[in-house]
Amino acid sequence: RELEIARDVQLRLFPPHPPRIPGLDISAYCRPANFVGGDYYDFMYRADSDLWFTVGDAPGKGISPAVLMASLQASLRSQLNGRPDSVASVVSELNRALCSSFDQQRYTTLFCARLDPINWNLTYVNAGHVQPLLLRSPGKLHRLDCGGLPVGLFDSAAYEHAYIHLQPGDVLACFSDGITEATNHNG
Question: Which residues, 6+ apart, have CB-to-CB distance to 7 below 8 Å?
């Protein structure tokens, strides 16, 4: 029963569909390796604002990582309603919120980004998450690694943000370790 509750919590965290933004194709999908996992993604967009998106991964299976991600989502959405100054300040506040709510064994990796859909400037923080890949024409690959420690580990953790200008034809792939650790039936 606990796994069913955790799966329901996790499925409700995912947005029903990505936002529609002219000039941008967005796709997202999550399929847990087991019945439920700690993976999370979200989009927050208003027509008069930037697109915020995040990908996270809490270790473990079951209700504990699902509750952690629900807490993270609530905190993140609350902050974004206040129109924050920077991605680094958002991640720092998420870190403080998680540290005050959970013990140090409850943490999450997180990639959090803000895209200005007019100028195509991407500002991001990678808090210990698998490095997203930016593929540029003609086949040049960039890893988005600037950031800091996973959120929820240390109250005093510091986070840096980085900027990158997106160009037509760029492909940004954000994913969890489920991709890099995937195996077939032969291992």
Answer: 32, 35, 36, 66
Question: Do residues 177 and 57 make contact, with C-beta atoms less than 8 angstroms apart?
Answer: yes
Q: Which residues pair with 151 in a beta bridge?
A: 108
Q: Is the pLDDT of residue 187 over 80?
A: no
What is the rounded distance in angstroms from the CA atom of residue 14 to the CA atom of residue 97?
A: 21
Please tell me the pTM assigned to this model.
Answer: 0.86
- Cα separation, 65 vs 73, whole angstroms: 12
- Residues 20, 93: Cα–Cα separation, whole Å: 28
Q: Please say whether the beta carbons of 121 and 165 come within 8 A.
A: yes
**Going by C-beta distance under 8 Å and a sequence separation of 6 or more, which residues neighbour residue 50?**
114, 115, 116, 117
Cα 56 from Cα 92, distance rounded (Å)? 15
Distance CA 102, CA 106 (A): 6
* Residues 87-107: tens digit of each pLDDT: 999 999 999 998 988 766 788
